[in-house]
Amino acid sequence: MLELLAPAGSMEALRAAVQNGADAVYLGCGAFNARQSAQNFTPQTLMEAVKYCHVRGVAVHLTLNTLVSDREESQVCDLIRHAALSGVDAFIVQDLGVVELCRRIAPGVPVHGSTQMTVHSLAGVRLCAAWGMTRVVLSRELNRDEIAYICQNSPIEIEVFAHGALCMGYSGQCYLSAAIGGRSGNRGRCAQPCRQSYGYGRWENRYPLSLKDNCLIRELKALEAMGVASIKLEGRMKRPEYVATVTATYRKAMNEGGVTRPMMQDLTRAFNRQGFTNGYYTGRIGREMFGIREDHQEPPSWMAAVRQSYEGVENGRVDIKFIANVLADRSSLTVFDPEGRNCTVVGPRPEPARTVALTEDSLKDRLRKTGGTPFNCVEVETVVEPGYTLAAAAINAMRRDVLNQLTALRARRESTPINKPVKVPHYPGPKGAPEITAQVTTREQLTPSLLRLNLGALYVPLHILAGDPGLCRDLASRLPLVAVLPRIVHDDELPRIAAALRAVKALGVREALVGNLGLLIPVREAGLGIRGDFGLNIYNSRAVNLLREMEFKSACLSFEMTLPQIRDVSKGIPCEIISYGRLPLMVTENCLFKNRTGECTCNQGGAKLVDKTGAEFPVIKDGASCRSVLLNGKKLFWLDRQDDLAKLGIWAERLYFTTENPREVDGVIRAFRDHTPFDPGACTRGLYLRGVE
Ligand SMILES: [Zn+2]
């Protein structure tokens, strides 16, 4: 059975979801969830929410899907404990450190890998399974064949987004909001800059980053046949009326197996951005996927009608069975729920009937009146002694009492083991000036002066190394050469990547830089050492320690961390930060070039988006793929502050070259040597000083 998983940004939205047929809801509590601007739940209302849901047969998934700093760890531990004791049915997690905390503190509560983990391949799913997760929420960019392939081979459950807003960038890999205004998408504060207007080259009031809302309502049978466990409706920030409409419509489609025009009209009325798209699912990527929100007012009468589906009503979702005995000397009523729980009440002693005796039919009719309760009576067995009677009020009271008992029983929390988290040992990291590492995007950037630097690592894209064996062999013999893998590699691309890894290994490459969980197993199978890149979003000591346990050679810390956080994080393996370069703010499945002109001109370079303020965002691609990487126009610059970096305990600082030509590369090396002062016109300190919300 496909699970229908609905959003609950508030108690009202929760009721809207439950009363309209959700099998499960997901919600946030306190500070650690990806929708900080939703109303969300407090520890107290979380407990009420879980009871409300469990009584009605609905599971509760708690979103814990943000990156968590070391200082926040004790708070997140409290929340994990409280949520487990409140009876939540699963945690949805992004941060690798938080995965470990959940597994350790509350081993009885399943952990689901959030879409913020950017898992988009079978190898990524397998890794999550190995870490004890029982479900993964796949990246939204996968097509139906890819989803089916993963489902067929996955050892754990797969959840996919079926309806609602789509992010332009792969979730978990978007730093646009953080870079523009310090509001991190990875910390639940996304300000949705992708909904703003941009132009190509100069501002044009176009919307190249605003996708229509996803809608897979016509694909539910196919998704179920593939073995998808759960379909997720997006919308924790949306109104309860929206949640009610979308949940009810999807429930109807699942129950009736079809989609009618009025159902589509309801979805459209609830919310749309110039219609809907299923482009990722069908694999038809392109301009038709894009749209913006147009002003429109829902008719108040329609909104009121929607509210009637959940305000002050009980839609009797839980099927129950009664067994009633009205005998000469006693009466009793027992209720059974679908899970086999049962409760019994004893009623008053029946009296001999003076006029009309109680019949089985009239007793059944009375017991079936469960309206206004969470229960729906589907079966009544009765034994009635002929010639006796029991007052209607007495029967009603028995029915009420036994259902109240059942309600309390269903709301009762199962006991679950709670453990203490294990402390991460503190490793301060090396003292003194960090080594220099350099990453290039093009072959031309490998200038003689760059190669003369005493580099701790030289990161070169895998496709460049594999495509030029002479270059690869030469570099590998002279420098600590590391092959850079694309961050996004779908399953059908993996054989090519694996072959390239084998090829460069034969040419002397010993290590790879990996920014996605899905690539760990393939890199290990190729016999290469692993260095962790920023895409893994390593934000705390526990996550670094996890990489240590997996024998990573090094970790690039999240560039959303502040310098004090970087200084204080436990460095169980050599840690690196990016100190120079245009930070990648987004990686997109859609080719921004192709969406502009109709053909992919990815290789020609020079392309950029420009926002209203004139800020520029150059675009390159992810590895050799046609996926676009949106870069910050202003370069991160710390070359003048070497003294500050020397206090951090980091192994290395990385010069990250993207759009630079060879002359600019050499200029950066001179700037590094001369401690050239910071130019605020072209450069930024990034988030290392101001941090993110
Ligand atoms: Zn392209």
The global form is elongated
Please tally the helical runs, counting DSSP H or I stretches of 4 or more residues.
25
Share of helix among residues? 25-40%
Q: Which parts are unreliable, with pLDDT below 50 for 5 consecutive residues or more? A: none
Identify every distinct bound molecule in the structure, by name, code or SMILES: zinc ion
Report the end-to-end length measured between terminal Cα atoms.
39 Å
Mean pLDDT: 95
Helix/strand class = alpha/beta
In brief:
With 693 residues, the protein is α/β, with parallel strands linked by helices.
Your description of this structure?
With 693 residues, the protein is of the alpha/beta class. It contains 25 helices and 31 strands. The strands form five sheets. The protein has an eight-stranded parallel β-barrel with strand order 1-2-3-4-5-6-7-10, surrounded by seven helices. The protein has an eight-stranded parallel β-barrel with strand order 18-19-20-21-22-23-24-30. Strands 8-26-27-28-25 form a five-stranded antiparallel sheet. α21 (563-568) links the parallel β23 (554-556) and β24 (575-581). The longest helix has 20 residues, at 392-411. The mean pLDDT is 95. The protein binds zinc ion. Zinc ion is lined by residues 591, 593-594, 600, 602, 626.
